[in-house]
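re: ur question from yesterday

yeah so i grabbed the chain u mentioned. its 62 aa long if i counted rite. heres the sequnce exactly as i have it in my notes:
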Amino acid sequence: MPDKQIFEAAVRDAMVVLKLLKQDVFTGPAYTTADASTEKAKAAGWTFEQIEAEAQRRIDSE
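ran it thru and got these structure tokens back, copy pasting raw so excuse formatting
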């Protein structure tokens, strides 16, 4: 199983980006951080779709 901590970091970063997108903010350091953590998670075996889906699920349940 891929490293869960790497996945959790990517999901947290994706949540920040998804919230920024809803505020019409399309650039900034959060995007750079999210890109880096997503790439680490992908290298560890997770997919972008898994990360994004989990981030959206968590936002929806807040």
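noticed a couple things. The chain has a mean pLDDT of 96. also Helices lie at 4-22, 29-43, 48-60.
anyway ttyl
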